[in-house]
Design a protein that fits this description.
About 45% of the residues lie in helices and about 15% in strands. It has 3 domains: about 180 residues, Rossmann fold; about 160 residues, 3-Layer(aba) Sandwich (Rossmann fold); about 55 residues, no CATH class.
Length: about 400
């Protein structure tokens, strides 16, 4: 089967932040399963002058490659709803999206874009229930996993280079966690964008994990709304599977449904709060034998159940079975680019919208500076847009994409 993968090659589309997770893990797994894979870049903003050019290039790639399945990992509105609908009407490909953060993105993103896909994969069980309540029957529950190419047996603790490490960008409350540990006399070797050590390549990540007596993971995804009540959300992240798979010992912040995949206390260790984290780091550093037994058990569970080869085999079988019934009813024909031209015309900005951008941008630059100001202005507009405009936000007419291409 020929699969067209539409996502970024690098983290957040920036080469300086290292190779993207999906690019370095998803594509090799699909190829190991025997599929022909073609990659289309959707996150890097230097390849086109705007979203119109990116979407046009995507349609040309679809027509040229004629894939059996299109596998997207959308961040937000990089591929317009109009573009996705053109593909669904005109092409034989099953259209799949892997949604990354439905613990908080479902109400602002997934429920609006999911109707434009044949199959919508989510890693969040609550999103599956919400989709059923919203009449969306094509959601599919899946989960992150480990790269089978990077599976390695754990090293004993006494052969590890780093007592404690963390691999991931320095954002949210992560710097605070690391600073609090430092105050308690626990130094953590941190790697990734925003840390003094800087980003590391996808090849280096499993080496660092395997050479660490303890690998930390923080599951907090920020503030989400439970009705009108704000609460913190903890989610299962890819690192939970990557660490045991690479031969590391995982000490992770607890998260909903974590016990469905690993047994805490036997295969991984979990913590709640800084005092618990501090105590468990000291405990496992002082008891290397217990650490080694748990690392071995977590690795064995990962190897047996939690690789992308297994995940994607099941996902693609279900996707093709579910999607082909819909695809078979479509009229097969070449892409009508006149349909796209109409959407691209809507996407154009006149002097009035440019003036609006300036009025929105100016105070944000004053408050946050020239570097962070434009992103703050885009975020403000986006938060207003999805609440008031819903699906329109992710269309060619959506104001965030029309006014803030570089910052999106």
């Amino acid at each position: 089967m020929k699969i067209l993968c539409a996502f970024g090659k690098h983290n957040y589309g920036e080469p300086g932040r290292g190779e993207g997770y999906e690019y370095s893990n998803f594509i090799p797994a699909l190829r190991r399963l025997g599929h022909e894979v073609v990659h289309f870049e959707t996150w890097n903003r230097t390849g086109h002058s705007g979203f119109a050019g990116l979407n046009l290039d995507f349609l040309k790639t679809v027509e040229r490659e004629n894939p059996d399945l299109i596998f997207c990992v959308l961040m937000h509105y990089e591929l317009w709803l109009e573009t996705l609908e053109i593909v669904r009407r005109r092409c034989r490909a099953v259209l799949v999206n892997w949604s990354t953060d439905d613990s908080w993105k479902y109400p602002q993103f997934s429920r609006f874009v999911a109707p434009s896909f044949d199959v919508y994969a989510t890693t969040y069980p609550e999103a599956l229930q919400k989709s059923m309540n919203d009449g969306l029957s094509h959601f599919l529950l899946t989960q992150w996993a480990a790269n089978a190419e990077k599976l390695q047996e754990p090293l004993p603790a006494d052969r590890c280079r780093y007592p404690v490490s963390f691999v991931g960008s320095a954002y949210g409350n992560r710097p605070r966690w690391i600073a609090q540990l430092a105050k308690r006399g626990i130094e953590v070797a941190c790697f990734g964008h925003g840390w003094p050590n800087g980003p590391v390549s996808a090849v280096e990540v499993p080496r660092i994990i395997r050479e660490s007596a303890i690998s930390l993971n923080f599951g907090d995804s920020g503030i989400v709304m439970d009705g009108w009540i704000p609460r913190r959300s903890r989610q299962i992240k890819a690192r939970i599977f990557e660490v045991p798979g690479a031969g590391g010992f995982l000490l992770t912040e607890n998260a909903d449904h974590l016990g469905d995949f690993y047994t805490p206390g036997k295969e991984i260790a979990v913590f709640d709060g800084i005092d618990d984290l501090t105590g468990k780091i000291r405990h496992f550093l002082a008891h290397p034998g217990e650490r080694d037994r748990m690392a071995g058990a977590g690795h064995a569970r990962t190897r047996a159940e939690h690789t992308y080869d297994r995940r994607f085999k099941d996902l693609l079988e279900t996707a093709t079975r579910s999607g082909h019934a819909e695809v078979a009813s479509r009229k097969q024909s070449r892409i009508d680019f006149s349909e796209f031209s109409a959407a691209a015309k809507i996407h154009e900005t006149g002097w009035l919208l440019r003036a609006f951008r300036f009025c929105l941008l100016a105070p944000c630059v004053v408050l946050f500076g020239r570097q962070r100001g434009p992103r703050a202005a885009r975020r403000l507009l986006f938060e207003i847009s999805w609440r008031l405009g819903g699906r329109r936000t992710y269309s060619a007419a959506g104001l965030p994409g029309r006014l803030f291409y570089r910052e999106s």
